[in-house]
UniProtKB/TrEMBL annotation, chains A, B:
Pfam families listed in its UniProt record: Acetyltransf_1 (PF00583)
Protein name: N-acetyltransferase domain-containing protein
Gene3D superfamilies: 3.40.630.30
Skewed-composition ranges (Pro residues): 1-13
GO molecular function, one term: N-acetyltransferase activity
Lineage of origin: Eukaryota, Viridiplantae, Streptophyta, Embryophyta, Tracheophyta
Length: 232, 232
C-alpha cells in the first residue's frame, strides 16, 4: 500500500558530517540510505507488516519472506522493483566508495533528545556498528506516454515509530526524486489517503500536486482470477 | 494518462472464427491483439496523441516518435513497459503459431453495420491485408508489498473513435487481465476520472473496485528538477 504518515519536511538540516561526534549540544545521529539486498528481506518483511498495522490493513497483508525474496531483486536496481533502506546509528557510517548503481547517501542529525528504540534488536543488520533499520521506500519505474518517458512510482514509504517527525520520510522521498532526476525521468508519483491531511500538506510542501479527479481502479482476488476462463 | 472512454462490456460475443465470412447477416469484422514492436511506434505515437485530444490534455503531450522508440521496447515483453496493439480487418488474420512471449488473441465480430474509418490510411501496417490499428493498451509491472507479488498497471487503454462501443476496450482490458493471471500476478490497476460515470460503470462490471479514498500525488517538471540541487 501507499505512503504512510511521513514526518514534516526538514528544516535547515545540517550538511552530512558537519556535526562532530563530540558536539557539546544535542544528540548526534547518523543516517544512511542504501540499496537493500536479499539479505535485508527479514527487515523489509517486518517493515511492511508494521506498515499494514499502522494503516489498519493487516487483513490485506499476506507477504512472506519467501515471497519477497522471489519477487524483489529480480532485476538490476531501478530497472524494476527497488528498495532503499534507511539505517540509523549513533556512530558515523564508514565512508563508501562511489558505486555505479547507487552511492549510499549519508546525513548527520543533531537531535534534542536521544532516540529510544525498544525494537532495535529486531532491526539490526550489524550489531557491531550499532545500526538499526529505521525505514524504507519501495519504488519501481512507471511510464508517462504523454512525456514518452519513464518515471518512478513509490509503492511504500515508511519510517518506524521512534524515528518519525525527524525528517527521515523527507530523506527517503528526496532520495527517490534525486534518482529520478539523475536518470532523466519525468515524474515521481504515489498515492495518499484523502483524509491524511498531514501527509497531503507535507507532500505539497515537497512540491507535489495532488490530483483530485483521478480514482484508482483495482482488479484483484477472485475477480481477477475469473479472467482465466474468459475469452477476449 | 489513463483509461479513456471504454466501450460497454461485450455481450455474448461469438467465439473466434465462429462467424463464417459468408454469413448472410451482418458484417463480419476480424480483430487481433498482438504485442507491439518498434515498427509500430508511428501508430503508437498517433494513438497517444488522439488520446490527448480526447482527454483535452494536449498541453501535457510532448511525446515524439523518437522518445517513444528509445523508452519503449527496452526490456522483454511484460518485464517493463509493454504495448498490446488492437488490429481490425475485414479479412481473417492468418493463423499464428504459439509464441513463448505472447500468442496473438483473435476474435471475430458480426456487426450490424460496417465500420467506416476515414483515417484508416494513417493506421494501416499492412495494406495488402486491409488491416487498421484500432487501439492499444500500454501497461507495465507494479508491485504490491502486502501481497509480495507483482501486478500490472495499465497506463493507457484507448480505442479509436470508429471502433468504440463494440467491445474492443473490454478485449484490451481482458487481454491484460488474462496475462496477469497467467503470470501469477496479484492485481491489475489503473486510474479513471471521477466524473467519467460510464467508464466507472464499465470497470465495475468487469469486476474492478474503485478505491474512493486514495489520491494520486505527482512530482514533475520544475518541482522535480529542483531535487537535483537538494541535499537529503
Amino acid at each position: 500500500m501507499a505512503a504512510a504518515a511521513p514526518p514534516p519536511p526538514p528544516t535547515a538540516a545540517p550538511e552530512p558530517n558537519m556535526v562532530p561526534e563530540t558536539s557539546p549540544i544535542g544528540h548526534p545521529v547518523f543516517s544512511r540510505i542504501r540499496l537493500a539486498t536479499p539479505l535485508d528481506v527479514p527487515f523489509i518483511h517486518k517493515l511492511i507488516h508494521q506498515m499494514a498495522v499502522f494503516e489498519r490493513l493487516t487483513h490485506l497483508f499476506s507477504a512472506t519472506e519467501s515471497n519477497l525474496s522471489s519477487s524483489l531483486f529480480t532485476s538490476p536496481p531501478f530497472k524494476s522493483f527497488t528498495v532503499f533502506l534507511l539505517e540509523v546509528s549513533r556512530s558515523p557510517f564508514p565512508a563508501t566508495l562511489p558505486s555505479p548503481d547507487f552511492t549510499p547517501l549519508l546525513k548527520t542529525h543533531n537531535l534534542d533528545l536521544p532516540i529510544e528504540d525498544p525494537e532495535s534488536h529486531n532491526f539490526t543488520p550489524d550489531t557491531l556498528n550499532d545500526v538499526a533499520v529505521a525505514g524504507f521506500v519501495l519504488f519501481f519505474p512507471n511510464y508517462s506516454s504523454f512525456l514518452a518517458k519513464p518515471g518512478f512510482y513509490i509503492e511504500d514509504i515508511f519510517v518506524r515509530e521512534p524515528y518519525r517527525r525527524k525528517g527521515f520520510g523527507s530523506m527517503l522521498l528526496t532520495a527517490v526524486a534525486k534518482q529520478a532526476v539523475k536518470m532523466g525521468y519525468g515524474r515521481v508519483e504515489w498515492v495518499v489517503l484523502d483524509w491524511n491531511a498531514n501527509a497531503i500538506k507535507f507532500y505539497e510542501q515537497m512540491g507535489a500536486q495532488i490530483l483530485q479527479e483521478w480514482r484508482v481502479c483495482r482488479l484483484t482476488g477472485d475477480a481477477l482470477q475469473a479472467f482465466d476462463n474468459v475469452n477476449i
